[in-house]
Write a structure and sequence with these properties.
The chain is α/β, with parallel strands linked by helices and 268 residues long. Helices cover 32% and strands 16% of the residues. It starts with a helix and ends with a helix.
């Protein structure tokens, strides 16, 4: 059943013939008194498939904090679709003005989205990098029953209890040569989950020689989103998928391909 749903969901995954148009992006400000401003991206065929459309929550790193929402477009899933990658999901990308990500404020965004957009609530995913990796783990651990799967890149966690993280498929990825956020920050989470026997749905990779910025390439790979979409809240045991393997050569080739594609489209 899962493979059938995935095949239907990914039927339109391909490189676009033109960059995502601005009318696919909407800026949302002050939807909550103390909440985050955020972008909402809707895929081109959203109106046709809205009830089956997944939702991805993307959390940026510390370098994009502030009050200029355009900064959030610099890297990540929104930058990927603007460069020509079609991701068949609503993408919600908030901006954190300062400090750590607040799980409650992120949950407020999901509640607002449920009231104003139609999508599949069984297919809500979260991924983030650096400070956003911390935010991903903190949010997924606080609201595991709302998240079908999560990917945390070069982050860590401020959680004291990791039992919530053990309830959902989780992929933690960190480079061993990361100087901005040491790989030990992710290893602390993995080791704590193992001690608490909360690692049954955990997948983790320590990328030998990879720097902090290297992991941003995951946002430009269809395999990243394929892995997320393999999981759904409908499945009672929500097993973690281990079949998606992303090699360094694949990351480099895909990133160069999408950069080249973006350049060709601008020339046109």
């Amino acid at each position: 059943m899962k493979r059938i749903l995935l095949a239907f969901l990914l039927a339109h995954v391909a490189f676009l013939t033109c960059p995502a148009q601005d009318d696919l992006l909407e800026a949302k400000r002050a939807v909550r008194n103390d909440g985050y401003a955020f972008w909402v991206y809707t895929p081109q065929d959203y109106r046709q498939y809205e009830r089956t459309t997944p939702l991805i929550l993307f959390l940026h790193g510390a370098s994009l904090r502030g009050n200029d929402l355009d900064r959030v477009l610099r890297y990540g899933p929104l930058d990927a679709v603007r460069k020509g990658l079609q991701i068949p999901a609503i993408i919600v990308a908030p901006q954190n003005p300062k400090g750590h990500w607040d799980p409650r404020k992120l949950y407020d965004i999901l509640e607002w989205m449920q009231q104003h957009y139609t999508y599949n609530p069984q297919r809500v995913y979260v991924l983030g990098m650096s400070l956003g990796g911390y935010g991903t783990l903190d949010f997924a651990g606080a609201y595991p029953d709302k998240i079908a799967a999560a990917i945390a890149l070069c982050g860590g966690s401020t959680l004291k209890n990791y039992s919530g993280l053990g309830k959902l498929p989780l992929w933690i990825i960190h480079g061993t040569a990361d100087k901005a956020v040491k790989v030990e920050e992710s290893k602390k989470v993995v080791e704590a989950m193992q001690r608490q026997h909360a690692d049954g749905r955990l997948r983790y990779d320590w990328l030998k020689g990879a720097s902090h910025g290297d992991l941003a390439r995951y946002f430009y790979l269809t395999d990243t989103y394929d892995w997320l979409f393999q999981h759904t809240l409908i499945e009672p045991y929500r097993p973690v998928d281990t079949n998606v393997i992303i090699t360094p050569d694949e990351k480099a080739a895909a990133y160069q391909q999408i950069r080249k594609r973006s350049s060709e489209l601008r020339i046109r």
